[in-house]
Design goal:
single chain; alpha+beta; 6-stranded mixed sheet; 5-stranded antiparallel sheet; 14 helices; about 35% helix
């Protein structure tokens, strides 16, 4: 009997081990099947280690950005368009991690857990992806940036569609420079980085929009206040320097003139707790949802936990340790004309199978209520005043443009020039678009970022407000 019992126990143990082994095998199959199928040794997908067979990527108007022909990825005939859309489309070697060809590789190849890449072998191509991008707007942004490093993006603030995403430096995917990996001059610095999704920048005076919102919500008589700018102001144990001497200004004029003295005084009165609370309500210090469910963005940061009064003054004008991600900042500014409601940005509009069936269609999503309708309305008025009274409507003819510039000092080195920024949007119902421009190592924003925004928004108007 003991012998039979031992044999039964051994059998039960073998069964248990077998079941555990099957479970582990199934788990590995589910979790690693994608990686196995997408291995660069898979000749159905790759040639010489680069993606060769996949579906088409198109812009919003159906223009082909990349397709497969004769076992090779073929890009747009337009060199400017290839350069403009490189970081969004991505390369087929996977260097640009946020590019569609890498982040949506499963969808492009038609991979599924059940069928693997069977449909790719069956039809000779994967699924087609239609983006929200407008090629004409992207080309204009690329040309406007010229040889400057930076990013330009445009979003429909009513829907969340990203109609333009351009990041520089860039290169022609059809003629990749041989010195990218060995260059020491800095001209290719961050060339594989999509600055719109992955960049972090000192916000400069664009942060005054957030300080202004905090003031509207926490200082009851802010519109009755008068501030005196003598070119500098003492905050705590040091001074905040202004870009000019503005004399006596009210709240609106302080924003129009981007007066550091006034906004440093406002920030110091608000204090670290209130300023941080407003910023965090707008998404600072929080992981944002992935764009189109796949593309992660860098996290905007603010930390005033150990700041002195002077630090808070500098933070209020966007010159402390605060960093903003361009995609996030575009979302913040886009919420203002929406009555405070922030829409989730997206770049993939739909996915179509080789049989012509639509397997995915983007849906509009709300991130949250960034501002109350009252605060959003007041910010809208202030930002419209900025363009009318400071930058000039001649930059944005018949667009009812609102906006804020920022010239951000990023180094104590006197030879290092500042970054220039512009965030803004059109009030026109037929042109519900917001824009962000970041230009690195340049002159004042009014002479660099604003002219770029002007060129791009003129193309937006031509494309959409016909």
């Amino acid at each position: 009997m003991k012998s039979i019992s031992r044999r039964a126990l051994t059998l039960y143990l073998l069964i248990i081990f077998f079941m555990v082994g099957c479970g582990l095998l199934f788990f590995n199959l589910v979790t690693n099947a994608d990686a196995w199928s997408m291995n660069r040794a898979n000749r159905h997908l790759y040639s010489n280690g680069v993606l060769a067979t996949a579906g088409d990527i198109k812009d919003a108007n159906g223009n082909i950005l990349v397709s497969t022909k004769d076992g090779k990825r073929v890009y747009s005939d337009s060199k400017n368009l290839r350069m403009a859309t490189l970081h969004t489309v991505g390369d087929n070697a996977g260097y640009i991690a946020s590019g569609i060809q890498t982040s949506f590789k499963d969808e492009l190849t038609g991979y599924t857990l059940l069928d693997g890449v069977y449909n790719l072998k069956r039809y000779g191509k994967g699924n087609d992806i239609t983006l929200t991008l407008n090629s004409a707007v992207c080309e204009t942004a690329y040309k406007a940036l010229g040889n400057k490093k930076g990013t330009v993006a445009v979003m429909n603030y009513k829907t969340g569609e990203l109609v333009c995403i351009v990041s520089t430096p860039t290169y022609d995917i059809n003629n990749k420079p041989t010195d990218i990996e060995t260059d020491t001059s800095g001209k290719y610095e961050g060339v594989y980085l999509n600055r719109f999704f992955s960049g972090l920048y000192t916000p400069g005076s664009t942060f005054k929009v957030i300080t202004a919102a905090c003031a509207i919500e926490n200082i009851p008589d802010i519109y009755k206040r008068t501030f005196e700018c003598k070119g500098k102001i003492q905050i705590g144990e040091g001074y905040v320097i202004c870009s000019g001497t503005h004399g006596k200004v009210n709240f609106e004029k302080a924003l129009n003139n981007s007066c550091n003295c006034a906004f440093a005084e406002i920030a110091a009165e608000l204090g670290a707790e209130k300023l941080t609370a407003t910023a965090e309500r707008l998404g600072f210090n929080a992981e944002s949802a992935a764009v189109s469910g796949k593309i992660r963005t860098a996290k905007s940061r603010i930390d005033l936990s150990k700041s002195a009064a002077l630090d808070i003054g500098w933070a209020g004008i966007g010159q402390y340790t605060t960093l903003i991600n361009p995609c996030h900042m575009l979302t913040v500014i886009s919420s203002i004309p929406n009555g405070g409601t922030a829409k989730a940005p997206y770049v993939v509009n739909k996915i179509t199978t080789p049989e012509g069936k639509t397997s995915y269609t983007a849906t509009q999503a709300v991130i949250g209520e960034y501002f109350t309708p009252d605060t959003a309305g007041k910010l809208d008025t202030l930002l419209r005043s900025n363009v009318k009274n400071q930058y000039g409507d001649n930059f944005f003819p018949k667009m009812e443009m609102c906006g804020k510039t920022g010239t951000a000092e990023v180094s104590d080195d006197p030879d290092k020039r500042p970054n220039a920024l512009f965030v803004g949007y059109s009030q026109l119902s037929e042109m519900p678009f917001a824009i962000i421009v970041v230009v690195e190592d340049t002159t004042m924003s009014i002479t660099s970022a604003v002219p770029i925004a002007s060129q791009v928004m003129k193309t937006v108007k031509a494309e959409y407000a016909k």
